Amino acid sequence: MEEADMVIVGAGFAGLAMARTYLKLNPTTNLVILDAGTSIGGVWARDRLYPYLRTISQLGHFEYSDFPMAGNGRYDVSAGEHMRGEVMQRYLEDYAAAFDLTRRTRLNAVVSEAEDKGPAGWLLTVQTTTNDDDDDDAPQQQHQQQHLLAAKKLVVATGLTSTPSMPTFANQSTFTAPLLHSRDFGRHAASILHSPTTPTTTTTIAVLSGNKSACDVVHAICASTNPSTTVVHWILRASGHGPCWMAPARTSAQNGSTLVEELITTRFNTWLASPCIWGAADGFGGVRRVLNRTAWGRGLGVAAARAAQEGLEKRNGYGDGDEEVARLRPWGDAFWIGTGRGLLNYGEPGLLGYVRQGRVRVHVADVDGLGPGPVVKLSDGEEIAGVGALVCCTGWRHEPSIRFVDGDGGGDIAAELGLPHAYDPSADAARKAQAALVARADDEILSALPRLRDQPPPATCPPHHLAAQRAEVRAAIVAERAAATAEDDDDDPVRSLAQAYALYRFMVPPSRARHHHRRTIAFIGCTRTASTALMAQTQALWLSAFFMGRLPHLDDKTNNNNKNDNDDDDTIAYEAILHARQNRWRHPLGFGRRLPDFTHDALPYMDLLLRELGLPRWRKRCSFLPSLFPSLWREVFEWYGPADYRGLVEEWAAKEEDLGVVVLRGGGGDDDAAVGDEEGIDGVVGVGRRRGRRKAAPLFSATNGAFLVTAAVLGAAMAVAAGAWIGTGRRR
């Protein structure tokens, strides 16, 4: 049976970052990457691309810090441009090749089950698909083979967009047109977008759902087809959550205005935009306390959110009289939605332009059934005939695609790992203990962040979107959704938590965080965030330190003389639940009830990880004496991007080298070397670890100056807040 030191499942942004980082620190590791796709890239894999698919980020914003895209002619992208899908796929393949990850990657490999073998690691059941390429002229035959792979350490990097959530419909078997999920649109795009037509025929394509994927598919269809022969029927489920918020790429139409994506990693904006229980990890807890716990501070945040939403509605023209565009106005308040939004990253005329041109008909109705023939039947009585394809952009199943079982009886251990699992009401003792932790977490969140007490109603279809005769349908939908929400969260919060992720730092099973012999599994990329690349590389470094036993708050017993392991386990379990419940209260109209879903909270989350790694969180420096003084203005009002984290792995390794643990040589791949006891480097506690003399803290360190900086920023924030408040009042 094959064995590996580490197996990473997933070859997207997170998986590649994990492999690159761990190998940089442990170059002798036998590391294997498994991916179910036909190419490297994850969501940017080759067979998931289609025409006009682009990133929401522009050049310099969506990349690894140690592998910049700008200036490389292979990518054919200029400043101010969104990267095309094929560019991102090429970039990730180049990244894998540059750091010797390609030869370690096995494609078309599906991991169906992982069996816990205790300290020995995990036994993976892998199904591999291969093609018979012996005869180029004959049709290729696929062969599937199942084998076992033993992994001392397992990192699951499959993310949250791997398993499609595909609906079923009444009489689906009688539907004669292609029926597919948006994941497979790239594979079928050529046949769907270029179906034969004549001057007297029209191609009709139906798209279901109102999320960003649906926006991209609708735009791709309109941009790729003849306006005189193709019409798109865009179906927004009346029982669903409605269309997503879509913002222009910049805050105003003027050249040089701020990119919207830069606001979410600008500290000042994170203070105003998002109450967050881990927010104080950014070192500005005093500012956050004032903004969250005072009436005027909360009022400022509410006013800022209201002004931003009203400005967005005006720029998109939801109230300009076009009925089709009006139907695309989101149903819920943008403040309560996490990543269920997007940017209008399209060229002219753009998505809304195509809608105004009459290329798109927007329906607010459920799909009652399909067929017979190429017919889609809607709940408002309308039938869409002659459909060439129905593309369901209906999202993803949020639980992992791998079944995790114990090594004794093969029972499911998802609950023990902190993963979504089947609710077991019979486990009274565990249920009561968890209920107490949930109640404690909710009380802490709502006490510290009073703004979150005023929860929004479920995002349901506005009355004006349904005909009067359908009013009873809407009433039934509202009642059903409200009842489901009450059952999930208010009457039984533990039942709700069972359906959600409750990982420590969104990466590690809480029960295994402090016990070195049980540190055999972790999850990376289990967060929905707009800061994908930054999060991936930061999580990768934290997890590398975790596996190597180099996280002081988990590994340094000298800081926990008055605590026993049970105390620490309880603290870790509580923090995992606390952060999971933060997502539930912060983004109830997004995915927060089920998984980590945040935009503005990504920066303080990365600050938290950097602090635990012993690295500076404040990375902006002034032009004079940059090694001594962080620049207050830049730290507060400039956005954080990949360049700010360049050299992060080397920085951490240099710090650890002072303790005699790791020395790096070379730039990556097989050229890297480590000095010291190999087992100690790879994380076996008590072997090869030498405690060296710690360096004295610098006089002007971020930690020592936190109080002074916080006081200064608080004064500045109060002045700015007063001006903004007055300005808002005058505009009204």
Automatic annotation (TrEMBL):
Assigned keywords, A-Z: FAD, Flavoprotein, Membrane, Monooxygenase, NADP, Oxidoreductase, Transmembrane, Transmembrane helix
EC number of this enzyme: 1.14.13.196
InterPro entries reported for this sequence: FAD/NAD-bd_sf, FMO-like, Lys/Orn_oxygenase
Keyword Oxidoreductase: yes
Cofactors: FAD
Catalytic activity: L-ornithine + NADPH + O2 = N(5)-hydroxy-L-ornithine + NADP(+) + H2O; L-ornithine + NADH + O2 = N(5)-hydroxy-L-ornithine + NAD(+) + H2O
Gene3D superfamilies in the record: FAD/NAD(P)-binding domain (3.50.50.60)
GO terms assigned for molecular function: monooxygenase activity
Superkingdom of the source species: Eukaryota
Catalytic EC class: oxidoreductase
Residue spans crossing the bilayer: 705-726
Pathway of action: Siderophore biosynthesis
Family as reported in the entry's similarity comment: Belongs to the lysine N(6)-hydroxylase/L-ornithine N(5)-oxygenase family.
Protein name: L-ornithine N(5)-monooxygenase [NAD(P)H]
Source organism per UniProt: Diplodia seriata
